[in-house]
Amino acid sequence: SKDKGGGVFHAYEPQLHVRAEERRVLEMALRKALEKNEMHLAYQPVVDADSGRLTGFEALLRWESPEFGNVSPAKFIPLAEEARLIGPIGEWVMRTACLEAARWPDDIRVAVNVSPDQLQNPGFVTTVTSALAGSGLSAGRLELEVTESVFMHEGLGAIKTLERVLDLGIRLSLDDFGTGYSSLGYLSRTRFSSIKIDRSFVQAAAKGVREAVAIISAVVALAKSLGMATTAEGVETEAEHRMIQDFGCTKVQGYYFGRPLPVEEARELANRRMQA
Ligand code: C2E
Ligand code: CA
Ligand code: CA
Ligand code: CA
């Protein structure tokens, strides 16, 4: 996101600079993308680290533009935030994810990414309530993913909104942990169910970078002592999976377990697992 700091592990994630002209043209197309039906959600499996059992999916937004092809969310989400389009797009994501997840088996959760700007809007609570009511999805099956930047810039407004959605019974995850301007204070003040360990740490630890190993161990220990789960992101190989199990992470996500899938395939995977 636009708020990422300049830490060592950032080197792995290329900064995406969109030039002014390209940006203007992209922004115009983005304004019309929803009404033109160019967006859909892909669902990446999230599995239990020890058993490999499917526990849910993370909803990831996809934009197939006739003009620009598949645009990465790492590029268009920041643009949508700047152009103040994240409100309607985020609302569409919330409704669609709830509707689609409501058709999965009862124990399969859905995680939805939420931008800080969405939490600035007091109407966010109504969006979540009506997405749940409109889909019949129980609150306990919805998880929201927010990043540390929520606590840096948005002040108390965002935190109040989070408290209100938490009271609905939904879960909250702290996404991309350690890549922003971290402060540990909010970890104890906000009711997170889990901390997501960014792919950059997983990849660096797998290469034997000692600092990354130390950070993952510390995050897992911290989460445990606070009664929170940990999800390791970006696990691509069997060796990385074993490493993550040794760290004692609760859940894993990554290409090794599955790429983001079209909704029908996600549903089939969830149903197959039920029969297994
Ligand atoms: P994120 O929330 O950290 O999502 C994880 C990203 O890592 C996804 O990229 C996913 O496809 C990718 N990924 C998962 N496993 C692996 C792996 O094993 N290896 C590698 N190299 N990558 C892996 P994606 O879908 O391109 O999304 C990028 C970012 O865009 C997301 O990062 C999130 O910050 C944002 N985003 C996506 N959808 C939404 C949305 O609906 N709303 C908001 N606000 N942001 C979204
Ligand atoms: Ca996420
Ligand atoms: Ca993440
Ligand atoms: Ca990330």
TrEMBL record:
This is EAL domain-containing protein. It comes from Sphingomonas longa. Residues 23-274 form the EAL domain. It comes from the Bacteria.
